[in-house]
Amino acid sequence: MSSGPDVQDTSEVFRGTATGRTSLRDQRSTDGSDQQRAIPAFVLGEELADLADHDDRIAVLTADLAKANRTNDFAARHPNRFFNLGIAEKNMITVAAGMAASGFVTYAATFASFSALLGCEQIRTDCAYPRLPVRVIGHHAGMSMGFYGTSHHALEDLGIMRTIAELTVVCAADANHLRGILRASVDHPGAMYIRLGRGRDPEVYADVPDVQFGKAVRLRDGGDAAIITTGSEVYPSLQAANRLAGEGVEVAVYDMHTVKPLDVDSVAAAAATGRVLTVEEHNRTNGLGTATAEALLEGGFAGVRLRRLDVPDEYVPIGPPAALYAHYHLDADGITAELRSLINDA
Amino acid sequence: MTTTTNRGALLEQLRDRARFVRTETVRLSRIAGAGHYASSFSAAELLAALYYAELRIRPDEPDWPDRDRFVLSKGHAAIGLYPVLADLGYFDPADLDDYTRLGSRFGDHPDMRKIAGVDFSSGSLGHGLSIAVGIALAGRVRGSDHRTWCMLGDGELAEGQIWEAAMAAGHYHLGNLVVIVDRNQMCIDGFTDDVMAVEPLDARFADFGWRAQRIDGHDLDTILNTFSDLPRAETGQPQVIIADTIKGRGVARMELSLDWHVGNLVGDDYDDVMSELESGLGREVVR
Q1: Considering the entire predicted model, what is its pTM?
Q2: Phi and psi at residue A166, in whole multiples of 5°?
Q3: Contact A98 B124 (CB under 8 A)
Q4: Contact A98 B132 (CB under 8 A)
Q5: pLDDT tens digits for A174-183?
Q6: B197 CB neighbour count, 10 Å cutoff
Q7: In this complex, which of A99, A125, A131 lies closest to B137 when CB atoms are compared?
Q8: Using CB atoms, which residue from B134, B160, B164 is nearest to A96?
């Protein structure tokens, strides 16, 4: 198991979010081997403010986390369309639904543990069922809150959200990806759940991509195996695939940003390699790995060798995020080892 | 939606429409095989006064942006709202004849995507006030002078989200928001005083920054006066009308009864209740 320099990262969750406007690439760091470029801050508020400059339907809500999720960047530019509902997440989500029923496209942002878990029924009943354009933003998802502990982790959100009918569920891999997702979200029909990390995601997309919901992005081609991953695990999956490429092993990497509706065509393409590894920062139950397994079986690919890297059915130990990722083999080292095992397992 | 200038005639019309809410509730419940009679009956005068005398609406233009909104947070009273919407012309009254049957647009709880005139889909108690806060905020941002009305049940006041929303309405000074609490005294398992005490409601709302008043929710004259005396939105204070009502009002066997939250009238009971309602409840109930 790896214990690279980032493992002991103190992982202050609000780093890069407490002061002023931040740009995409002003705080790069490297981990030595993989030229990791850290994109430090949320572009959430900034991008939404840009969109709102040209679209008076856009409104933003948060629940006492305007600094942590940088919706304060939106508030500074569009104060009349920004609403802080205090520490009352259920109310925030339903208020966002009420505004959406009056013609707004609303973005309601708070920690994923509180948006998707605490606000689950509000998302179902008030947003998805009436098919309203509410975009619930679940940030600091997974175990990215590290030592803040289980109360602040969201390792169940994809499973919960995936079960809600007619809800589009999307994960952002980095800041550029988030911008692309937000741009595509404005006119997307129905309600959405958008899952973000802690705003320090290394760069996957060099430019803002043209995101098509329900259509995965093949970031890397390869015939020896395929990784299907999403959100925070896209970057380390690419790292792992790149490492194996140096050994003559070619692994395809799919960014399955839209967990629902799942891009079953991309699952089929991945299945053509004969070996599929899913990687996600989520509980083993009912996340991307489950969805992929369903698609493989229903697509007639039962012969494909499937492995799943995720968080087992347990509450994670205390630790900084990077250490937790290493602990669960969700970093580049762990993914590389799992790929080797998958490929060598004749 | 009346043009009469005669107060007496208006009150007589509203009494008739309140009776219509009740008789239709009984009729539709028989189609479904079960219904929320008592929760509709307690709100009958309030619904009649709102829809026939107060709300600024255009039934021929259901999505009119500047219409007053009405959020029926106690969505289980939709059985009393549907006939009113049909009567006003939002849809063909005959559409109600297959109420709750497979494929009907009309279920026990209302669906805004299927029914013209329904401003929000409700049913999960405790949500409606948050919806209304969102609509009121939207109206303010848009510069519309419409009012947002919300009818709450008293039982759902035990839901914490109601008080999250009440706090937000006070914080954002939503003078364009009017709440009516159908204080019919009962939830499913009994009297609210026994199951979960909600009083003193006027003081509780006032503490959240609201202007609260308490009225007889079956007295149409008082209801109309209360509506017409509401201050304009510019006061910046959300308004709550605590309407003291009787769950099951109008049918003796159902009034404050534990047995009629959901029920099914069949055979002679159906005929007896219809006769009871049609033979003058309007005059007797409304003092």
Answers
A1: 0.92
A2: 65, 15
A3: no
A4: yes
A5: 999 999 999 9
A6: 11
A7: A99
A8: B134
Residues of B with Cβ-Cβ distance to A80 under 8 angstroms: 141
* Selected residue of A85, A110, A114, A121 to mutate for chain B interface (largest B Cβ count, 10 A): A85
Residue A125 is nearest to which of B127, B136, B141, comparing CB atoms?
B127
Q: Least CA distance to A87: which residue of chain B?
A: B164
Of B134, B161, B167, the CB nearest to A97: B134
Cα–Cα distance between A146 and A282 in angstroms, integer? 14
**Residue A231: closest CA among A211, A255, A205:** A255
pLDDT confidence of residue A83: 98
Tokens of A107: 């973005």
Strand A251-255 relative to strand A217-220: parallel, antiparallel, unpaired?
A: antiparallel
Neighbours of A8 (CB within 10 A): 12
Q: What is the mean pLDDT of residues B147-161?
A: 98
Residue of A nearest to B124 (CA): A125
Please answer yes or no on whether A91 and B168 come within 8 Å at the CB atom: yes
Please give, rounded to a whole number of angstroms, the shortest distance from the CA of A285 to a CA of chain B: 27
Q: Tell me how far the alpha carbon of residue A341 is from its chain's centroid.
A: 26
The pLDDT tens digits for B197-214 are 999 999 999 999 999 999
In angstroms, the separation between the Cα of residue B30 and the nearest Cα of chain A is: 28
Facing residue for A126 by CB, picked from B111, B131, B136: B131
Report the amino acid identity of residue A320.
P
Amino acid letter, A145: M
d(CA A64, CA A85): 7
- What's the mean per-residue pLDDT of chain A? 90
Interface of B with A in 25-84 (CB under 8 A): 65, 69, 71
Contact between B134 and A125 using a beta-carbon 8 Å cutoff: no
Helix ranges, B172-266 (H): 192-195, 201-207, 220-228
Q: What Å distances lie between residue A56 and A106, B125, B134, B138, CA to CA? A: 11, 31, 16, 11
Q: What is the DSSP letter of A130?
A: T
Element (H, E) at A309: strand A305-311
Average of per-residue pLDDT across A47-57: 98
- Tell me whether residues B164 and A121 touch, CB distance under 8 A: no
- d(CA A286, CA A159) in angstroms, rounded, equals 5
Give ∠ CA B58-B63-B68 in degrees, rounded to 5.
60
CB B215 within 8 A of CB B226: yes
DSSP 8-state secondary structure symbol assigned to residue A142: B
| Residue B281 pLDDT grade (very low, low, confident, very high; cuts 50, 70, 90) | low
Per the structure block, which two tokens stand in for A341? 């095992």
Q: Which of A80, A83, A97 sits opposite B131 (nearest CB)?
A: A97
CB contact under 8 A, A98 and B138: yes
Mean pLDDT over residues A212-230, rounded?
98
For chain A, helix, strand, coil in percent to 5 are 35, 20, 45
DSSP H stretches of helix in chain A: 44-53, 72-77, 89-100, 112, 120-122, 157-162, 175-185, 234-245, 264-271, 288-298, 321-327, 332-344
Q: Which of A62, A104, A126, A132 to mutate to test the interface with B (most CBs of B within 10 A)?
A: A126
- The sign of the torsion formed by the CA atoms of B278, B281, B283, B284 equals positive
Taking the CB of residue A149, how many other CB atoms lie within 10 A of it?
A: 13
Percent of chain A with pLDDT over 70: 88
